[in-house]
Amino acid sequence: MEKLLIEGGKKLSGKVKISGAKNAAVAILPAAILADHGVCTIDNLPDIEDTNCLEHIIRNLGATVEKLDGAMKIDPTGITSHLALRDEVKRMRASYYLIGALLAKFGKAEVVFPGGCNIGVRPIDQHIKGFEAMGAKVSIEHGVIKAYTENGLKGANVYLDVVSVGATINIMLAATRAEGTTIIENAAKEPHIVDVANFLNSMGANIKGAGTDVIKVKGVTEMVANDYSVIPDQIEAGTFMIAAAATRGDVTLLNVIPKHLESITAKLLEMGISVEEGEDSLRVYTNERPKGINLKTLPYPGFPTDLQQPMSTLLAISEGRSMINESIWEGRFKHIDELKKMGASGKVEGKIAILEGVETLSGTEVEATDLRAGAAMVIAGLVAKGTTRVTNLVHVDRGYEKIEDKFTALGASIRRIEE
Ligand code: EPZ
């Protein structure tokens, strides 16, 4: 079993280049199959398990895919199948974007139920509601989501009952080729939604309003492949900001969009940590022990749920009491038990976690119970006294590119071992 072995207590310092956004990339790769002709080169692509998995899935659908350094070339013209039924589809959440993309391309799709992090109930009723509003008949049979139309999709008005990133993107994908206009109301506004819309528009789609809560998609009859560069990863950037603060270091992040990080910057400032914004860089530094704060996760532009877990580690060693209200995923506090194994003090009641800040943590073996819990454990290991072993790295590798190399370059003592 692979583990990350971390000798804690070293302040992080230096520069780190942030990779392309996972949650944009995992939607842009399925979106690329919508091109009727041409080859897309997707650049600034994170080299992580989720994009590697999508590479296989898209290739198995019939596309020609070439992996380059930090990029992928996709020629989707050979795709003739609307079936994504192989086991690898189950390995990640974002494979559900194949439903929207295949429905748009062929008017039909069969996709195995997606997997991903176990952070609570992850229904897809809002995705299905959108596809049905556009005229698809959707059923779930033996673990396969089947969506069929008689004569292609028709534009429709869809009001999302919950603000859902996945449903917004999936409905947007399907609507690109529907007949007429689709209006998505109460849409999610995350930066990756704008990025996917920009990519689709660059291929000839007609999407307006991405980044607001009303998105209008006029269906088009043809889309042509285009080259595209994925935005920087808001969550990876936030993870390094938090790690810099937790080790009381001085780290400059390169290749970031500071605007996307405002909610994190605001919280770090509230804790007494210094953050300086450049045009496409951010410096985070402190010498002091941070102050505890209250935090509520919210859809963008609120504080992202995907950083709640790394932030828990910082709050666990901050001064005084902190309260976290996790409003998106009810099962996203498993990392608190792991932090407690390292000496953190706190309790969880439903969607609320209360942490009583301790001076420091002490190293032991802890589990990455999901992707961002893994990031929380790595940060805990970086600050803890002694040696920390983080297990179950499959989760971490799904979403963080070369995590140990990036932290090593910042002065951490962290390496991957086989035990
Ligand atoms: C995306 O998941 C991200 N994953 C998640 O990041 C992220 O935590 C989440 O958005 C929220 O920001 C990807 O982009 C691949 P949602 P998604 O639909 O789309 C409820 C990470 O760590 N809901 O926005 O699956 C749902 O239960 C991952 O990188 C419904 O009720 O999340 C949740 O409470 C983990 N019905 C809320 O909406 C639906 O049909 C938000 O979910 C869909 C969602």
Q: Could you name the key traits of this structure?
A:
transferase, globular, 24 strands, alpha/beta, 13 helices, four-stranded mixed β-sheet, peptidoglycan synthesis, 419 residues, UDP-n-acetylglucosamine1-carboxyvinyl-transferase, Chain, binds ligand EPZ, cell division, 2 domains, cell wall biogenesis/degradation, single chain, 25% strand
Written description of the protein model:
By secondary structure, the chain is α/β, with parallel strands linked by helices. It has two domains: 205 residues, Enolpyruvate transferase domain (UDP-n-acetylglucosamine1-carboxyvinyl-transferase, Chain, Alpha-beta prism); 208 residues, Alpha-beta prism (UDP-n-acetylglucosamine1-carboxyvinyl-transferase, Chain), CATH 3.65.10.10. 32% of the residues lie in helices and 25% in strands. The chain is built from 13 helices and 24 strands. It has a four-stranded mixed sheet with strand order 22-23-1-24, with helices on one face. A four-stranded mixed sheet has the order 2-15-17-16. Strands 4-5-3-14 form a four-stranded mixed sheet, with helices on one face. A hairpin with a 5-residue loop joins β12 and β13. It is globular and about 65 Å long. The termini are close together. It binds ligand EPZ. Ligand EPZ binds next to α1, α4, α5 and α11. It is an enzyme of class 2 (transferase). Its EC number is 2.5.1.7. Cell wall formation. Adds enolpyruvyl to UDP-N-acetylglucosamine. It is found in: Cytoplasm. Keywords: Cell cycle, Cell division, Cell shape, Cell wall biogenesis/degradation, Cytoplasm, Peptidoglycan synthesis, Pyruvate, Transferase.
